[in-house]
Structure prediction request, 859 residues.
Amino acid sequence: MLRGLARITLRRLLALPLVVIAVAAMTFLLVALSPFDLGHAYTQGGRGLSGAEADEIARVWNLDGPVHEQFLHWLGNLVRGDLGNSRLLGGQPVLEQIGARLAPSAILVGTALAITVIGGLGAGVAAALFRGRTVDRLVRTASHLSTAAPSFWIGLLLLWFFSLRLGWLPPGGASDLRAEDVPTVAPRHLILPAVTLAATQFGWFAMFVRSRLLEVLRSDHVLFAESLGHGRFRIVARHALPDALLPFLTLVGTHLAELIGGTILVESVFAWPGLGRLTVDAARATDLPLLVGVTLAGSVLIVFGNLLADLSYRIVDPRLREASP
Amino acid sequence: MPRRRRSALLLVAALLLAACSPGSDPTASADGTLVIAVDAEPSNLNPIFGDVYGTIYGDHWPMFSSLLDHGPDLEPVPDLAVEVPALSDDGTSVTVTVRDDARWHDGEPVTAGDVAFTYRSILDPSVATSLRGLLFDSLESVEAVDDHRVRFDLNRPDPAFLDKLTIGIVPAHLLEGTDLNTAAFNRNPIGSGPFVFEEFRPGERIVMTANPDHHDGAPGLDRIVVRFIADDAARIAELESGGVDVDAAGLSSRAAERFRDRDGFDVVSIPGDLLTLTLPVTNPLFEEARVRQAIGLAIDRQKLVDGLAAGSGRIVDGPFFPDHWAAPDEPSSAFDPDTARAELQDAGWELDGDHLVRDGQRFRFDLVYGHGNVTDTAALAIRDMLADVGIEVRPETLEHGPMVERVHAGAASLQSLGNAYDPALDVFEMYHSSLADDPDGNVARIEDEAIDAAIERGRTALDRDDRIEAYHELQRLLTEQGSWQYLLQADAHYVIGADVEGISPQPREGHNHGFSRGLLWNLASWRIAPPDPA
Prediction:
């Protein structure tokens, strides 16, 4: 069984470069079609390109060649890890700078995902078990709020209440920036942004688990277990939940992209030093090498996330292990 | 059941009580650290790349020092220079003597060679700096005469040149022969200023510590943490919770007001950017001077000023900051909607109901502007005022890039003028015909020989009175021309949430950020007040 899993993992990892190249091609195409003027992008106003700037643009984008050659040239640089240098980052290599911003975003997304999954699962199960009761109504209201309210609004509300009114939690940043030595992320600083980010997806998960569980609870084998006199808790834990969990994992995979995309707003509200805010900065400054870099980095994260979701899917359901990916 | 309900009530009451108590009090830091918030994260700390905020006046971080600085009244004062030098009689050369006791933070002495290297780098076409084209158009060459004297040779008399000697000096011994555009130095610099660079954490902070060996003595603050927080609300939250001591990005008058009378907070207000309505002549609607003037007459500037908080703005009549030496005393703008209507009618625009119509076309235009507290309110007010004379204005906020394109294509815009220094630093760029096709310069596309002549005289005459005359003439011509409607000057409001001594802002500051100007120009003299014995 593990051999099958390893084989699939290997196969998916081997396919990863192809996926990245496809993402890169899309990114390149977007840039080629975008209204951004490369000259403007490099000089923030395009006042007379200097020789060095023109050289840098020509080097990175091979502007004189036809589009497909430009793409191959750019791809060649990409394979060598050369995404160009960013004006917004003082002329430093894009790849290096993205690396520095990856960890805070990964921690934020990871924590938010954990909150969403655990919270969604718990709330969904509770709502299903107490269908029509207060708990159910509360979960449903919270879920509807969560899917309807924009994340920056929830974020500002939480910020106002917990950090301004109560003074319990810091309003922004990933750690206490007054201090001498600061960790990448301090737990106290993580709470508000992670909860905000999780809130954007929580509703989907809770409602999904609830409806799925209600469905399974009506299914034949659960009825059979009930007729055998098994307790309700045992039925849910042993029979209904594993059944409901399978498609739940797919949901994790698809909503991971939403969480990563959500960092753009949440990181801006909470001054979080991650990739989401870097994306906003890059777009505002029309810093193309950086913008392309963060787009690629985000896409690669999503691809990896989906791979993980896919693998866990196979671990939970043995039937899928030997199936082709 | 009743008991459970009572405990629930208690819980709610506790929550409400907690909600009513204010957040933790701001704590001035006891260890000599001051946390300063700015709105934009710097991209490049190397001063030869100019001001990170996109202005060209040569701001630099306090880890650097410069030959001259703008002093308390905005006139040049010496820093690395022994004294403020004098231009040669023909105004085309200046020799500066560098003091011999200044050292880089790595211990090497600062020499005339470093100064020459710095300015030569700006002139080097392979260095991607925006300072070269605009600020240093007059600089022909720079040379170290000996270890302590630098000679600048100019290609024309430039009375504003001393204003351009405020660029931070960089160390030749560390940078000579490297690619300046991509040098690691740009984010990890070594300077000779009052503070030593310690750390740059992208997205978070820059840390500097006091330089005990600074040539003007050790600064009063032990440590400075600069945080980058773009959002006004987030900066307010940090001020409230004590995460930030000084908001150097500036808040709206309304937002600053809540801090004004509170214990533990001070609000410092400095007259800031001029707001203008710009009507490009390339737009067919604004072809005629009388139409442009009529639009100006239809705008009630006093009402715009009243839209700001009380006393935090004033009417302006021309391109210069009020009370600047170049600004004329007499007002040149007026509010006269009746004359505006008559002028528009003379130009062939007839009222059809509430709308002006000519050849079956309504008088309607887009007004593009960058989002901001002052611009947002002004744009809507202008829309209402012009609607009163039958002109339909459609305000639209845009980011910088798209806005430049729209303005280039002839859209009317709200622009902010931020030159508190010598007018020669920017009037050429703003109004000279040679830049009528430039994407950023001369956005109203003015081509006018008399205006060109006044600009030229203002930037080459060596006698201050001649220059004053030239700039008064320029203001008169620009008023007649009418493409630039100068509206108001709004104050920038800075909140200080710590007990800091030594704050003494400059009298005016364009573009409310920077470390060598405005609020922070004398940061090295700031100190955190000792705790009150009581």
Chain B touches chain A through 59 residues (CB under 8 Å). The radius of gyration of chain B is 26 Å. Residues 2-20 of chain B form the longest helix (19 residues).
